[in-house]
Specification:
The complex is a heterodimer of chains A (about 725) and B (about 170). Chain A is an alpha+beta fold and about 725 residues long. Chain A folds into three domains: about 5-205, Aldehyde oxidase/xanthine dehydrogenase, molybdopterin binding domain (Aldehyde Oxidoreductase, domain 4), CATH 3.30.365.10; about 215-285 and about 345-425, 2-Layer Sandwich (Aldehyde Oxidoreductase, domain 4); about 295-340 and about 435-720, Aldehyde oxidase/xanthine dehydrogenase, molybdopterin binding domain (Aldehyde Oxidoreductase, domain 4). In chain A, about 30% of the residues lie in helices and about 20% in strands. Chain A has a seven-stranded mixed sheet with strand order 10-11-8-18-15-16-17. Chain A has a five-stranded mixed sheet with strand order 13-21-20-19-14. In chain A, strands 1-2-3-4 form a four-stranded mixed sheet. The longest helix of chain A is centred in the N-terminal third of the chain and has 23 residues, at about 120-145. Chain A is globular, with a radius of gyration of 27 Å. Chain A starts with a helix and ends in a 17-residue tail after the last helix. Chain B is α+β, with helices and mostly antiparallel strands. Chain B contains six helices and five strands, in the order E-E-H-E-E-E-H-H-H-H-H. Chain B has helices at about 20-30, 75, 85-90, 100-115, 120-125, 135-145, and strands spanning about 1-5, 10-15, 45-50, 55, 70. In chain B, strand 1 and strand 2 form a beta hairpin. Chain B is elongated. Classes of the chains: A alpha+beta (about 725), B alpha+beta (about 170). The interface between A and B is large, with 69 and 67 residues.
């Protein structure tokens, strides 16, 4: 064994400890300090695959599991190439610290943008295939035959000529010593036996018994609990705190100022910490935004709809000239509010700090970013830090941020050696989100005498996410994420229409409210703007909304295919049930093409009911159709929550909605029947966790127009009276 | 020391009178399957049974629960996930992130006890729990499957399980 091989193995010890200790789905919780002194498992065939002597297979998953099913989907892809016995497959999460020490052998840990499968399918499949080649080689070596004369299936290797068999578990230790092959041919998807199948998730049963340990549930020996309040006005600071007023309350150990804007209470239980914090007199310096409001910012955005300082994202021909000379103009302004992710599990993290080492247990969508944040906040090099990813009670983009990790580390530094679990109250979670950005849009279409669209100008005014989360990524005032769904033809978020002249531009205006990536991101409101406006053009020119779209989508066959599939399944053009009206929407984003047809009714007194949504998705390759269906249904729940109720408003510099009583979301009673039409056309890998969200609202809004003649251009719907005029 | 009857066992604990039952279960008794989601009885993640009645434990002061009242948490439903509702949930792969599912299951068990053949309207009104992943339609299907003696086939999901079965 080479020195390199030895050092490679030094960092794998947690795997051995974990598997020997009865690992369940990678969710076993390492105790403090455990990862430091580890022994090597001799059964790691390569970074992705460990095969135990009893034939149990452990597949390493670098991406986070937050409900979206990536854990199972990635395991299916590895197991497919491995030719593994699926009934014996389990999974585990390698840690970011291990990955760093091994030259990032597991690639990107970041789990957002529906990229879990679409951006790692190639290297994880190669990992599975390489492991299979090594296992077969090891068996062939033992039998002194050629590997080409052997076959593998369901973890069993057979020598074809002699009929001799062995199992992966029997040869894994020998296979682990072999060089990793570099010439790897992946299976054609038509050969798949595990990938592409409607397999049950690997993590379901323990979610029905309460046994799974989420970040909030973690208990470590000697652990204390903390509750925190950040200044409710973004940009404000703590002026004073009367710690003496609560220090004698039962269980309270310490009152801590975190940075210059937050105060935390550490106590034996979280409930005592939280109630003590509620009783703590805090005086805030509310800072420069104490008077800010959503209403005032809306006027800033409105002015920006016509402002000259805009960055052009997509231009075809001379749209301004064509609009100036158009015989007829259709014009409309739209707006979309701030929204909170509202994950069911509020933000939390547990940290233990000593001058030698800092460890964090956190539900995070980005283990590597959490490791970097731990290093920064602790002042220790990353090699002396570790992050253990906990199960996530929802992510939706919010847990890609690391604010709560930094706070937990800051608290742990106050009590070296003591694990501190920080849990945000729901109120803290609502007030200190990383909000969906606020924007407005102005759309202007030029029409010729026959009603054909000669030019379209789509102006977006408003907030940039990158300006909040990665300002260094903005070049010349351009945030490319702003234009999702409106990009030129290409593999990502391209517009599905061709116009003789087109101009898409953005006038950036950033309020003091921090923005973040919110499930579906900017595709959500951009698809409302475009798809509702296409309906407006159809109405203005007395065309059927589907017929108009088909004319404009001739050069966009993949966009058109999903639209046609949704329309046909829903019965577009045929009568709907009495009192039920239909609306369409389509878009492309996160690598996939999606469309929806919504069926709604609006009662005489204005009550909206969404009865059914038919959704079509072309994700290229479909790894687990039943989980894609679950993601499509979940996307409508999330998208309809946003459309019906989702709004965070600012008054006196702070968010007004503090809990689910003022920030309602879709419940069982609101949920429509969802029919998913899956048409994977092959040749590309698209995400499925987000794109469908974007068609939920516009399909419903267009159906509401069909039902009532009311064109809703400002969300959410709860602010509108849908009663027929 | 105060006492609670939890999952058939009399447990002792120490907490202030106004501590919600939820936090006694989670922090004093180590039963973390019951979740904190909102603290104001809006989301249902904290649902437990109190003498069979689904109760939002996040707003129930522990001092108002006597040792004679029988508390059942998700951990007490079965030791191994074998309750018919849990089995329907697993057969139809209902959970996504799973955080709300303890409360969902406890609410569903109470509903089915009250109404063994619930209508859609019954389900809409009894299941007011919040799920942000959007598992509602599978929750509905699993409740109907449990009501139908565990017949999950009518949901039409055709999920292939590792043991070779399809549900």
């Amino acid at each position: 064994m080479t020195n390199a091989a030895v050092s490679r193995r030094r960092f794998l010890g947690s795997t051995l400890v974990a598997t020997a200790g009865g690992l369940v789905l990678g969710f076993r919780i390492p105790l403090a300090g455990e990862a430091q002194a580890q022994v090597v498992p001799a059964t790691e065939v390569n970074a992705w695959v460990v095969v135990q002597p009893d034939d149990r297979i452990v597949i390493r998953i670098a991406r986070s599991e937050m409900g979206q099913g990536t854990l199972t989907g990635l395991a299916q892809l590895v197991a497919e190439e491995l030719d593994a016995d699926w009934a014996r497959v389990t999974t585990e999460f390698p840690t970011p610290g291990q990955s760093l020490a091994r030259n990032r052998v597991w690639g990107n840990f970041s789990t957002g943008g529906s990229q879990g499968i679409r951006q790692s399918n190639d290297y994880v499949r190669k990992g599975g295939a390489a492991a299979r080649l090594m296992l077969v080689q090891a068996a062939a070596d033992a039998w002194q035959v050629l590997p080409a004369d052997c076959r593998a299936a369901a973890s069993v290797i057979t020598h074809l000529a002699s009929g001799r068999t062995t199992t992966y578990g029997k040869v894994s230790a020998a296979a682990a010593k072999l060089p990793v092959p570099t010439q790897i041919v992946l299976k054609d998807p038509s050969q798949w036996k595990l990938a592409g199948k409607r397999l049950a998730r690997l993590d379901t049963v323990d979610k029905t018994t309460g046994k799974l340990v989420y970040g909030m549930d973690l208990v470590l020996p000697g652990m204390l609990n903390a509750a925190i309040k950040d200044c409710p006005v973004f940009g404000g600071k703590v002026k004073s705190v009367d710690a003496a007023a609560i220090e004698k309350r039962p269980g309270v150990r310490k009152v801590v100022r975190v940075g210059d804007s937050a105060v935390a209470v550490i106590a034996d239980t979280w409930w005592r910490a939280k109630t003590a914090l509620d009783a703590l007199p805090i005086e805030w310096d509310e800072g420069p935004h104490a008077q800010a409001s959503s209403a005032a910012f809306a006027t800033v955005l409105k002015a920006a709809l016509g402002a000259p300082d805009a960055v052009v994202a997509h231009a075809v021909g001379d749209a301004r000239g064509a609009l100036a000379s158009a015989g007829r103009i259709v014009e409309a302004d739209y707006s979309y509010p701030h929204q909170n992710h509202a994950t069911m599990e509020t933000m939390n993290a547990t940290a233990r700090y000593t001058p030698e080492r800092c460890e964090v247990w956190a539900p995070t969508q980005n283990g590597e970013a959490a490791l970097a944040a731990t290093s920064e906040a602790s002042g220790l090099p990353a090699s002396k830090c570790e992050v253990y990813k906990m199960l996530l009670g929802g992510g939706f983009g919010r847990r890609g941020a690391t604010d709560y990790v930094r706070q937990a580390v800051a608290l742990a530094k106050e009590m070296p050696g003591v694990p501190i679990k920080l849990i945000w109250s729901r109120e803290e979670d609502m007030l200190h989100g990383k909000f969906h950005p606020v924007t407005q849009a102005r759309l202007r279409a030029g029409l010729d005498a026959q009603g054909n669209v000669t030019a379209l100008h789509l102006r977006i005014a408003g907030q940039s996410i990158l300006a909040s989360v990665a300002p260094q990524a903005i070049r010349d005032g351009r945030d490319p994420v702003v234009f999702q769904g409106l990009n030129p033809p290409g593999p990502e978020a391209s517009i599905g229409y061709s116009f003789p002249a087109l101009l898409v531009d953005h006038a950036m205006r950033n309020p003091h409210v921090p923005a973040g990536f919110w499930r579906g991101v900017n595709l959500n409101q951009n698809t409302i703007y475009l798809e509702c406006f296409i309906d407006e053009i159809a109405h203005a020119t007395r065309q059927d909304p589907l017929a108009l779209r088909r004319k404009l989508m001739v050069n966009h066959p993949k966009h058109l295919a999903v639209l046609n599939a949704a329309a046909e399944r829903a019965g577009w053009g045929r009568p709907a049930p009495k009192g039920v009206f239909r609306g369409l929407a389509q878009c492309m984003g996160f690598g996939s093409y999606v469309a929806a047809c919504a069926e709604v009714s609006v009662s005489d007194d204005g009550e909206l009911r969404v009865h059914r949504i038919v959704a079509a998705t072309d994700p290229g390759h479909a790894v687990n159709p039943q989980q894609i269906e679950a993601q499509v249904e979940g996307s409508f729940s999330y998208g309809l929550s946003a459309a019906l109720f989702g709004e965070c408003t600012v008054k006196n510099g702070r968010i007004e909605q503090e809990n689910f009583n003022t920030y309602p979301v879709v419940q069982m009673q609101h949920m429509p029947a969802v029919e998913t039409v899956l048409i994977p056309s092959g040749g590309f890998w698209g995400g499925v966790g987000e794109p469908t969200i974007a068609v939920a609202a516009p399909a419903v809004l267009n159906a509401i127009f069909a039902a009532t003649g009311k064109r809703i251009r400002d969300l959410p719907l709860k602010n509108h009276d849908l009663k027929r005029a | 020391m105060a006492k609670l009857n939890v999952n058939g066992v009399l447990r002792e604990f120490e907490a202030e009178d106004d501590t919600p039952l939820l936090w006694v279960l989670r922090e004093q008794l180590g039963l973390t399957g019951t979740k904190y989601g909102c603290g104001i009885a809006q989301c249902g993640a904290c649902t437990v049974h109190l003498d069979g009645v689904p109760t939002r434990s996040c707003v129930r002061p522990v001092s108002t629960v006597g040792p004679q009242e029988k508390i059942v948490t998700i951990e007490g439903l079965s030791s191994d996930g074998s309750h018919p509702v849990q089995k329907a949930w697993a057969a139809l792969d209902v959970p996504q992130c799973g955080f709300c599912q303890s409360g969902m299951i406890m609410a569903a068990v109470a509903l089915l006890k009250d109404k063994p053949r619930p209508t859609d309207a019954d389900i809409d009104s009894a299941m007011s729990n919040i799920c942000r992943c959007g598992t509602y339609n599978r929750v509905r299907a699993a409740i109907k499957a449990a009501a139908d003696g565990g017949n999950t086939r009518s949901a039409g999901l055709a999920i292939q399980h590792a043991d070779g079965s399809t549900t």
